[in-house]
Design brief:
This protein has 270 residues and is α+β, with helices and mostly antiparallel strands. The chain contains 2 helices and 12 strands.
């Protein structure tokens, strides 16, 4: 019945003339209801505004969560790219050294990644992911793209332990490229290096570059071939009570942040 009444009223409204008693009645009813419509709109407006605010707040929170997730992902990708770039720089440096003029004759390079670092301030050894199956043996020299790192002191099938230059048991015969002065590279205070056994009357100056001295007599082959860069003289001192110069050396290789190295395997049995 309500549907029928509604249809009848709609029919009358559409067919009624623009003037007359019915039209006037409609106008009076509309005018009478106008204040109630305004009041209802004003009452509903705060609820409508509150709904819009809550809806916008929920959307903003959701967007904030999404953006934070994207930022975390981008940061992770950035760190990964930086790590890859650092490794790529090390490998490029190794490649440049292997193709350079100072690379020793009679040796092939076995490139390897560093898989473990010194466990403490007194441990001066690293592990690499190459071993006897790649031709590495005890005392095989190990270099980075910048200079000498140390030598292999323990070897397994697919990994090796490398003792660094800064180890207390490490000794390397070295030569000053500028003056030809020879000495012995060994560890100094802390993790520094010194050029020892240099007589006080000889000339060594700050900034001089040092390389491995190599073999002087075939009957007594040295562990390291000639010409591997070791480091640069950082200071020279003289003490009245000392027999030798106090020569401090800064290594070329950054021994604290090695990612990749090369083991120099002799191509002929020595």
């Amino acid at each position: 019945m309500l549907v029928l009444v509604a249809l009848a009223l709609l029919t009358i409204a559409f067919r009624s003339p623009t003037t007359g008693a019915l039209h006037d009645t409609q106008g009076l009813i509309s005018s009478g209801l106008r204040p109630f419509q305004i009041a209802a709109a004003r009452i509903a407006q705060p609820f409508h505004d509150a709904y819009d605010y809550l809806d916008g707040l929920t959307a903003a929170k959701s967007e904030n969560v999404r953006l934070k997730r994207e930022v975390r992902q981008l940061r992770a990708e950035e760190l990964a790219n930086k790590a890859l770039a650092a490794k790529a720089a090390g490998l490029e440096s190794l490649l440049n050294y292997e193709q350079g003029k100072t690379y020793p004759n009679g040796y092939r390079a076995v490139n390897a990644a560093v898989i473990s670092f010194p466990a403490g301030p007194f441990a001066q050894q690293i592990a690499i992911d190459a071993g006897s199956s790649q031709g590495i043996r005890i005392n095989t020299p190990v270099v980075s793209g910048d200079g000498l790192v140390g030598r292999v002191t323990n070897v397994f099938a697919d990994s090796s332990v490398v003792t660094l230059l800064t180890d207390s048991n490490s000794y390397v015969s070295a030569r000053d490229l500028r003056t030809g002065v020879r000495g012995l590279i060994r560890h100094g205070q802390g993790n520094s290096l010194i050029l020892d056994q240099v007589a006080k009357q000889l000339v060594v100056e700050k900034g001089d570059e040092l390389v491995t001295d190599g073999t002087r007599d075939p009957r007594y082959p040295d562990l390291y071939p000639y010409g591997i860069p070791i480091g640069r003289v950082s200071s020279v001192g003289i003490q009245d009570t000392a027999s030798f110069l106090q020569v401090q050396v800064e290594p070329f290789a950054d021994l604290g942040s090695l990612d990749s190295v090369a083991a120099l395997v002799a191509t002929k049995r020595r």
